[in-house]
Amino acid sequence: MHSVLQAHLIPPCPHADLFGRLGRSWLGRQELPVDEQAAIERHLRELDRLAEDIELLDREIAEEVIEDPSVKRLLTITGINIIVAAGLVAAIGDIRRFSSPQKLVSYVGLNPRVRQSGLGLAQHGRISKRGRSHARAMLVEAAWAAAKAPGPLHAFFVRIRARRGHQIAAVAVARKLTVLCWHLLAKGEDYQWARPALVANKTRAMQLQAGHPQQKGSRRGPAYAYNIKALRDREMMIAAQAERSYERFVAQWKPRRPKEARGRLSSAGHK
Hints:
This protein is mainly alpha-helical and 271 residues long. The protein is 63% helix and 3% strand.
């Protein structure tokens, strides 16, 4: 449908979602040949059919994991929604299979390739991309979401982005999320910087997706707190304080000078 619009030199849709209510109304007002208009209507019907299938699958997933403690624990991490949490739990299985977070990082292919010959210095390259590619894709998707919200993960993303760019920073956050998931699942703890109102909102969304009835006339549930601006702003302020704490902690690090690093490596190799 985008290609049809571009072929007829129609400017981009002024609305955020071309396939939403406003976007479809705008699309119907465009002057196109009869055959092209019929093709767009055919594609819209196919899009609606796929949306119904996806909605059914999402409901089945929510019904399966609504009482899973591991999924609930991963939902405390900013940037991880129900689909990502359920997918990661399915890919990881029993966390005891991985004796360290590095093993889990390697399992999803987010570990860097290492090239080394003899006693020479090891050279680290791009990520290996071996292992569970679907889980890796979900982690990168969650990393982009976590990078937009205030908190330590956002500060980490900004620090890496300043040196390596957006894409590498997102992959670094995905690796950080993998390590964080291992610690939460292995130790049975929730994320320290979780935002309770946001977690309750995600939990309630999971319940609705699983087909639980609406709570009509009730504003006392924990999920409703996310709709109160004062409470939401308070959580955002706490997350921003955590972000500044991370920045102050990282600012104390002193980078090792290249000559000192080579000297220490050579002396260690000599020993």
